[in-house]
Design goal:
By secondary structure, this protein is of the alpha+beta class. The longest helix is centred in the C-terminal third of the chain and has 16 residues.
C-alpha cells in the first residue's frame, strides 16, 4: 500500500476583535476526497486548509509554512502542532491505488502578506484564498478532520489568551 505524508496549517489572524482562519478553495477536488469525511453537497465549493506533500528531507512543520505561502499567499510563524489526521483514499486521477495518508496540522500565526496573492504557478491548484471567521471555519470546512483541527485551534486559543497580544 502506498503511504503519503502531508502537512498544513491552521493560520490564525486577529482582525476586527476576532480570530480569522486562512481558507482555500481548490480548483478541483484532487481525488483524495472521502465522502464519509465531507459534509457538503456535490455542488458546494470545497473549502479547505492549505496543505501539501512533505518533500523528501523536509520537516512537516516547514512543509506547512511553505504550503501556506504557496496556496494562500501569506507568511506565518509556527505556534504548535495540533493533530495528525489519518485516512485512506483511492487515487482516482491516476493508478487507482489505495493510499494511506497522514496529514499533520500546525497552529500558525499570520505574519505578513496579502491573502489570495497566489503565485501564477499555483493557480492550477488553488482557485482562491480568503479569511473566514474561526467559528465559521469550524463549521464550513468541507472535511471533518480539518473542522476538527480548527476546533483544536479554538481550544488552544482559549487556553492561551496571550496569543491575542501577538
Amino acid at each position: 500500500m502506498v503511504r503519503e505524508f502531508s502537512a498544513g496549517g491552521v493560520v490564525l489572524r486577529r482582525m476586527q476583535g476576532k480570530w480569522w482562519v486562512a481558507v482555500i478553495e481548490p480548483q478541483r477536488e484532487s481525488g483524495t476526497s472521502n465522502d464519509k469525511k465531507s459534509h457538503r453537497g456535490r455542488n458546494s465549493p470545497v473549502l479547505a486548509l492549505p496543505k501539501g506533500i512533505v518533500d523528501r528531507g523536509e520537516q512537516p512543520e516547514r512543509t506547512a509554512l511553505r504550503e501556506v505561502r504557496e496556496e494562500a499567499g501569506i507568511d506565518a510563524s509556527s505556534v504548535a502542532k495540533l493533530t495528525d489526521i489519518k485516512y485512506f483514499y483511492v487515487r482516482t486521477w491516476s493508478d487507482k491505488q489505495r493510499v494511506f495518508k497522514i496529514v499533520s496540522f500546525y497552529l500558525l500565526l499570520y505574519r505578513s502578506g496579502r491573502i489570495g496573492d497566489i503565485a501564477e504557478n499555483m493557480r492550477h491548484e488553488v482557485r482562491r484564498a480568503f479569511w473566514l471567521p474561526i467559528e465559521e471555519a469550524a463549521q464550513q470546512l468541507t472535511y471533518k478532520g480539518e473542522r476538527e483541527a480548527v476546533a483544536l485551534a479554538m481550544s488552544y486559543l482559549a487556553a492561551h489568551p496571550e496569543l491575542g497580544d501577538r
